[in-house]
Specification:
Blueprint: H1 18-37, H2 44-51, H3 55-83, H4 85-102, H5 109-119, H6 125-136, H7 142-173, H8 178-203, H9 212-217, H10 230-235, H11 238-248, H12 251-269, H13 273-285, H14 290-305, H15 307-329, H16 334-358, H17 367-388, H18 396-410, H19 421-441, H20 454-460, H21 463-484, H22 487-493, H23 498-521, H24 525-544, H25 555-572, H26 579-584
Helix pairs in contact: 1-4, 1-6, 1-7, 1-8, 3-4, 3-5, 3-6, 3-17, 4-5, 4-6, 4-8, 6-7, 6-17, 7-8, 7-14, 7-16, 11-17, 12-13, 12-16, 12-17, 13-16, 13-23, 14-15, 14-16, 15-16, 15-18, 16-21, 21-23, 21-25, 23-24, 24-25
Length: 585
Amino acid sequence: MDIKNKATGINLFSLSTPQMRAFHMTWFAFFLCFFAWFGIAPLMAIVREELHLSKAQIANTIVASVAITILARLFIGWLCDRIGPRLSYTGLLIFGSIPVMAIGLAQSYESFLLFRLAIGVIGASFVITQYHSSVMFAPNVVGTANATTAGWGNLGGGVTQMVMPLVFAAFIALGFTDFWSWRLSMVAAGAVCFLTGIAYYFFTTDLPDGNFKELRAKGEYRPAAQVKGTFMEAAKDRRSWALFLIYAACFGIELTINNIAALYYMDYFDLGLTTAGLVAGLFGLMNIFARTTGGIIGDKFGIKWGLKGRTKWLFIALAVEGVALMFFSQMTVLPLAIGTMVVFSLFTQMSEGATYSVVPFINKKALGSVAGIVGAGGNAGAVGAGFLFGVEALDWPQSLLILGGVVFVVSFATYFVTFSKEAEAEAKAEHDKALAERAATRKDVEPRWQIPALPDLARSLSVVDLLRVYLGIALVTKGIYFIMNLGEFESISAGSLGSFLNIAAWYVVFAHTVGGAALILGIATRFAAVLNVTVVVGAIIFVHSSEGLFAPSQGLQFSLFVLFALCLLVWKGSGNLSLDTMLRA
């Protein structure tokens, strides 16, 4: 039986429908799980000293936390097909919060390792997130929904690097010792997961029309008996394993880079700890829009060329990711290394979004099992890449070069993800139906957005498009310049205002580099422009106001021009050739 009443659009500022409640609950729950999953990482310096952990022991705990997730994702996908995403997520959040809070009981390496192993199970939350958004949204927007919920959830891994030290500092300020502060910090992270599990049970439903149990009783959804054997059905499908490899080559690479990026910039570019952290953080922060972008383009390729269009876009994104990684591995000049890393990060996360724009069409009856197999591929890729970086005969640039070549080769696995004519026809019918329903509910019915031919592309260019792209490039360049000149900042940050300056530096780098990249693509244009308005206003007040209008550097005049241009984008929006325009259509 087909799922009825899937949403044909995404209204980000609404909680009035079960589809949008599921959308926001899934990404928020995944965000918290990611936060708790890696919450101990920024506190490891304290834990290492207290438990007297060696470098090898720390490495073992990291591998354990990632490796166990492979099995957990396979199991949770199987479970979603049987009891639904609502009960699956509720159970995972509640029971998964226990080892997060209990890790504070660790008194030795062995007990700490076991708790890290148990905490890794909550990484399976990704599969439920993708399953729930897949059953709530129609084919015309399912790739965008999947990519956005996953991308925003992934941000938890980056945010925890900034927030957990602040939580730790708060407990220190309350008079607790280091011994108790890191333990209580993890209790706080686990408690939030526990409460979110309860909220998930009451605020979501399995499907747009209700829960599995009630719908099965009414005969409106397939009975549990029909779900038996779906995991084996998914496992026998070569497409599941092709996507397993593909996801290993994108999300697996993302996890690997998150683990090594800071050390890579410290060892090979002689950056300080703070500067290296800022640069490494850019890779994860791109999740705010990059993964969503991959899903949006996947949906648009699907509308234009059918299911084979989705796999075509997946091949392009993954191939470019591999090439960009190879270029990044050979960069020895810091600005070029940061620039190529931003491009590499963009296509890595777009590949992830593109992957899960294909997953919902592999096998609808075994959606959870397919999502679990593919999701497990990401962690398997991280484990495999981790072993590569442990090879003594290879330095890290050589390892990255090899990984880039592997990713490029794996991109050709998309040719094994094929669909029958019947599946293409069914998907087209579902797309057309969803688009018709979408048009019927919109007050401003416009011709649907099509991928333009080159002549039409040139004619569609507007002044706003050109201004937006120019500002985006200028801001990214400025962000890289800021990173390269943090020597004075690092010396100041050692003082009493170190924490504030660290947060301020993160904000400026994020606004200029990530916000600038968003402006180039034209996604979340107004939000990116507002972020940079705050930075430019700060620069005018605190840096350039004392120079005056007639200073030789003309910094004040240029900053005022940039401020005016950004305000224009806040007012006018993104222009014709932008992802914002694609998303609205």
